[in-house]
Amino acid sequence: MERNRNETGEGVSQIALADKALQQITTTITEVNSFNQQIAAASEEEQDRVNNTSNRISQIAAAAQATSEKASFGTTLAEQLNSISVRLQEYSKRFIL
Length: 97
Known about the structure:
- The protein is mainly α and 97 residues long.
- Helices cover 96% and strands 0% of the residues.
- It is built from one helix and no strands.
- The longest helix has 93 residues, at 2-94.
- The relative contact order is 0.04.
């Protein structure tokens, strides 16, 4: 009977140790889940920043294209004005007495 009590006592001790180990595992899993949620939130914020940056780059590219087109148009106008200026100078030389 004494032997049964000792074995029962050892069994209870082992159950207590197993219970403590399971509690530690549960705590660790909860912490890991919390870290995963933080990482997911940070990843989502980072993706939002990347998308925002991409949109801004697209806007800058569109503005650069529009500026290039306007500069080309300005160059064409300057060439036309130069041509008109040359012709006006030729016409004005004809009227000099």
